[in-house]
Amino acid sequence: MTTFTAINLIKRPQSGVIDSSIFDVVEKQIPTIAPGQVLVKQNYMSLDPAMFGWMSSDTNSYIPPVALGDVMRSSGIGEVTVSNHPDFVVGDRVMGMMGWQEYFVSDGEGLNKVTAPLPDESILSVFALPGLTAVQGLFNVGKPKKGETLIVTGAAGSVGSIVGQLAKAEGLRVIGVVGSQEKADWIINELGFDAAINYKTDDLDAQLAAAAPDGIDLFFENTGGPIQHLIFDRINAHGRVVVCGLIADYHNEVPAAGPSWLNIIKRRITVQGFTMPDHFHQVPELLEKLTPYVMAGKIKHRTHLLNGLTSAIDGLNLFSTGANKGKLIVKL
Fold this sequence. Notes:
The protein is α/β, with parallel strands linked by helices. The chain has helices at 51-55, 120-127, 129-142, 158-169, 181-189, 204-211, 227-232, 261-266, 283-295, 311-315, 317-321, and strands at 3-9, 23-29, 38-46, 75-83, 93-97, 103-106, 112-113, 149-153, 173-178, 195-198, 216-221, 235-243, 270-273, 303-307, 327-331. 27% of the residues lie in helices and 26% in strands. Helix 7 links the parallel strand 11 and strand 12.
């Protein structure tokens, strides 16, 4: 085989519509690598909500948008097939930002060796961006304390599910907000959450009152949406809000209005947003923090696997519908 498939972004999505018209599926020649480079065959590719921002035209963000005509951005895991780099040998399993393509050429920067004896799907589901994001957001931003009450939106998602399990392991009461009864059952019965709220049901305020009788100390926000206001109304004095994602607003030209600042003043609430590119230099210490929980069996996950590179196009829409069950991964 002398060619491979790649997918380039050629248009910006309009009104949140993700379909084949904004991408170009191309065949490329497998390159001859130069000194100091490696050729990686990507085996599994991660799909993440952040991609909606990467495809937009917004240049006032934490990372530049994907340039039109470039390979769509994504992280993945694969195997070194050719190496002219002193730090990598053929057969090394590696992880990094490889993009929507079957092969990837790298000078080694941002490429991390994978040594954990776990399947590729587990590595992408736990030790890649989901786990790193959960650790950074919960511990370094949220600063949880034993006995506190945490609520996490998108609780059955790749990040939210890990946040909740880490918080439970630290002795917090954990409430998860999800979009279906199946997901509610999963986070309670399988992951050990204390309570679950399906935001598509009625009487959300009453459900919050029952789930958090002593109020909420820590709010890990992944989704946005109307329930955000109800949660804010129940945050205790000196509570903290960790803003990781707002999937409900990614398709809106005008974001929904946020909660009133009156509560921030009256209850002295700390609100902090974060993004992982600011913390890539901390990956070794974040993995050091996460690994003992995983090895102790305290972190469970499930993978929603799609097959074939082009399945990524329609697969992105699963984030908007909430139809994904677990970490979205494409098998190449």
